[in-house]
Structures are given as C-alpha cells and as structure tokens.
Design brief:
By secondary structure, the chain is of the alpha+beta class. A hairpin with a 6-residue loop joins strand 10 and strand 11. Strands 1, 2, 3, 4, 5, 8, 9, 10 and 11 form a nine-stranded mixed beta sheet that branches. The protein has six helices and eleven strands. The chain is elongated, with a radius of gyration of 20 Å. Helix 5 packs across helix 6. The longest helix is centred in the N-terminal third of the chain and has 14 residues.
Length: about 240
C-alpha cells in the first residue's frame, strides 16, 4: 500500500537540509514500529520519496512524502505513532492511501503557495519600503505580460520569462504579509525568493534573504477533473 503523508517543518528546522529530513523520517518510521516496505537487493532501503524539497531557510505547513507499507494501523493511529516518535517541529497532519495508478508526489507537484512576512531585521531596514512601495510594485508585477529575469542553474545562467509561472501574488490590505501561488515541480519551478528579488530591484533596494520569513502554505497538483489545482493529499483516501 502506498501512503501519502502531509507534515510541517517549522522553527529552527528551517536550517536543516533535505537529506536530514529524509533521515529523520526513516528513523521515525522505524521508531514508530510501522510496517514499511523495503527494496530488494544487496542494500535494502525504505521505499519512500519526497515531493518538492524545500531549500534552507523556508518553513512549511504542507510538505509531503510517499511511502509503501506492507500493513497499516488506522489513520489516527498511524499519525499518532509518527508524531510520538518525532518532534512537534516536524508534525504529521494527515495521511492518505493512494490508488495504484497515482503519480508519485514529486511527479504530481505543479504549484506551491507561500506567505511572506518581514523578519525583525527586515522590519528595521525595509519596513517603510515594504508598506509604501512594494504593494504598488506587486500590482504592477501581476499586470505585466512579461517578466524576464536571469535564472541560474547548476550549469548555466539564462534569461527566462517568469510571468507564466506566477499564478497569483498579492499583499494584505494592511501590508503585513504577501501571499503568492507559484509554479513548482520537476518541470517548471519558481522560488518565492526570485519574486522578492525582482520586487527589490524594482524598488531600488538590495535584496537580502534575511529580510524575509517564507512559509509554504500548501503544495498542489492538477485536479484530474481539469478544474484547477488541489492539495496533494486529495489524490488518496484518508479513511483507513
């Protein structure tokens, strides 16, 4: 049985790498006594894969992984055992049994939503610009038909139009925070930092990652019915 698990990663855990997260859940699953499936061969390993790993410095309330199990307790017992085996800063919120033909979580991801607020450093150095200039620049960003930036990969730098990757971006009415829905996944991926860097450039201020707290709110896939986006957990059945 393939199970999709939804969890959060908060607090100081924003400083740990994706490899650390993988190791954390491998050990938590063993401590929880769950009957996970292992690969065959000379070096068996747990059959587990993660969706859209986050870079350092981001927190999230909607991370996902898929894992195969030979048997399962009830839904609530499954979640309880995983949470008791770990830390509240890596809280498991939901789980669903996937149908046989479901795409794995990494392949299914098409978008992620984020909330951005200022850190204490950001408020001190950028607070006035955030409230007086950024809202107008966000509105202009959405009106623009083309936004060309230099995207960097491991192998090259190239100009890229990121406008098709921005589903939405808006400031709160009181300019406390900003929410954005961006393309994500293995085929097309836009990081919220790239939007913040573009807005900083438009306001004539240097971009500083430490000005911002970025929280991932949800990770989405395309709705099989073709009606838009839906959270990854909706691919399966949470009643078990």
């Amino acid at each position: 049985m393939k199970v999709r698990v939804k969890y959060s990663k908060t607090g100081p855990l924003k400083f740990i790498s994706h490899l650390d997260v993988m190791r954390y859940f491998q050990k938590s699953i063993r401590r929880a006594g769950l009957d996970i499936a292992y690969s065959t061969g000379l070096s068996p390993h747990q059959i587990i894969s993660f969706a859209a790993p986050m870079p350092l410095m981001l927190t999230s309330v909607a991370e996902y992984f898929d894992a195969e199990f030979l048997s399962l307790p009830s839904h609530d017992e499954f979640i309880r055992r995983l949470n008791e085996a770990g830390t509240p800063m890596m809280q498991v919120w939901d789980a669903a049994i996937l149908p046989e033909k479901a795409l794995n979580s990494m392949a299914a991801v098409t978008a992620s939503s984020y909330r951005v607020t200022l850190t204490e450093k950001g408020e001190a150095e950028l607070g006035r610009v955030w409230r007086e200039q950024i809202p107008a620049e966000v509105e202009q960003l959405i009106r623009d038909e083309e936004i060309v930036v230099i995207k960097k990969t491991k192998k090259k730098e190239e100009p890229t139009d990121i406008r098709p990757m921005i589903h939405s971006c808006a400031m709160d009415k009181d300019a406390v925070g900003m929410e954005m829905l961006l393309a994500a996944g293995s085929k097309v991926n836009l990081r919220p930092e790239q939007i913040l860097a573009e807005l900083s450039a438009r306001c004539g201020v240097p971009y500083d990652r430490f000005h911002y707290d970025i929280l991932r709110l949800e990770t989405y896939m395309d709705d099989p019915a073709g009606t838009g986006l839906q959270p990854l957990i909706k691919a399966g059945n949470s009643e078990f």
